[in-house]
Every structure is written in structure tokens, then in C-alpha cells.
Amino acid sequence: MKASTLHYIYDPLCGWCYGAAPLVKAARELLPVQLHAGGMMAGAARRPVTPDLRAFVMPHDRRIAQLTGQPFGAAYAEGLLCDTSAVLDSGPPIAAVLAADAIAGRGLDMLARLQTAHYVEGRRIADDDVLEQLATELGLEPMAFAKALRAPAGDGVTAHVSETRALMRRLHAQGFPTLAIECDGAYEVVDLGPFLGRPAQWSAWLREQAAVGPAA
User: Residues near 129 by Cβ (< 8 Å), separated by ≥ 6?
Assistant: First the structure.
């Protein structure tokens, strides 16, 4: 069996990353998945919700739903995306993923919960109180999470995103999501297009390419 890792370049506010969530879930059953957050809407790129933003996002969301079967809730489409007091900011949810990983090795679980909270429940995942509620729902120790959340919130997130961007340049990655299999130190970027909405076929392909069997 080859030593294999699936590197997942993502952003918590990327709709296509949400569309790929079932593939990530399936991959976790077969091999280690390492997260790399890209900061698509972090820092100067954070965006307030506006009617123009909603008009831009909605056709993409409909396309993602059609291709992947992933649900987009009314609380998101008719709630959050109509709330002009809301701000879309990747930084805090990235900090939450790093915090969950640091205290419990559960960054992937936090990412999945963040995506559901945003795209289905229409929650403001850039707000610390929402992030702390989600951590509690996952069973993470509240005080430990709150402390870890604030630890990487500045330079930690910036450094992590910088490392991700360097990896993207190395892989010639075009955007989010990007998945790459690492085998014996070599990276192979995966074309996700044929597998969106087809997690069973994805799992079969992964077993063949990465030479792995079901997780013990």
C-alpha cells in the first residue's frame, strides 16, 4: 500500500467546495485528507451582502445544486443573501477550522458543519458567537475552542493562507476546490468534474489511483 494523502485546497465560502463536500466525506474513509484554506474572501477580499452579490451568486448555486444534489436552504437564499447587514468573510471560519484541528484533530468536521450552517441554515459563520455554537454542537470543549479560535485569528490565518497560495502555485491550481493526491512525495491534481454528484464512482477511482483499501 502506498503512503497517500489527499490535499484539499478549499475556502469555507466557496460554493463549489460545498458541492464537493460528499466527495471529501467519501475520501476520508479511504485516506488522510489535509486541509489548505485559500482565503478567497478574507481580509481585503471580504464582501458585504448586496443585491448585486446575491444576483451573481444565485445562478452559480443553482448550477451547483443541479450537478451535485447538495441542498441550498431558504434561510440562506432568502435570508442570509438578502441581509445587507451581513458580511461574507472567510477569515473567521478558517480560524474555526484551524482551532478545531488544533484542539481535537477535527478540522474536517468543522468545515463540513460550517458549510451546512452557511448554505442550508443561513447562519453568519464570520461571527465568533456562531462559530462557538457550532463547536459546541460538534462536542468540542467550549473554553478550549474559544481560546484556540482567537489564537490563529490574525497572523495564524494569514500564514496558513500564504502557505496554501504557495501550494497552489506549485500545483498550478486554478481555484477552489483543488484536490491533489500525494503518493511518495509526488502530487497529482485531480479533475473533479466527472465525479461531482457521484461519490461512489469517486471512491472507486480513489482506491485505484491511490492504491488504498477501506479504512481500518
Answer: none
